[in-house]
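Consider what follows.

. . .
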Amino acid sequence: MAAEESEHTQLIHRWLAGEVVNNHVGIKVVGGPSNGRTKIMKLGPGGTPPAQFRTSGGRAGSDWHLYQAVRSTDVPVGWIYSHIGIAPTPTD
């Protein structure tokens, strides 16, 4: 691989820095098992991220966790995802 970063790597770095590129942006995740990670999200109409997303607990367990988009002035993109709890387990 060339000494220069690939276009793909440069794109990822831009998203992680909070830059909106091709209507996608990296949004910081706060709380829960995904605390400190960044979620790359496609923005909807008006430049807003999806209201919620869920993710598995990964190494923390098999539970699914819910995160909600919250306005934040502490990050360049203006949004974070905050942990709101464990998703209810579907019953059959």
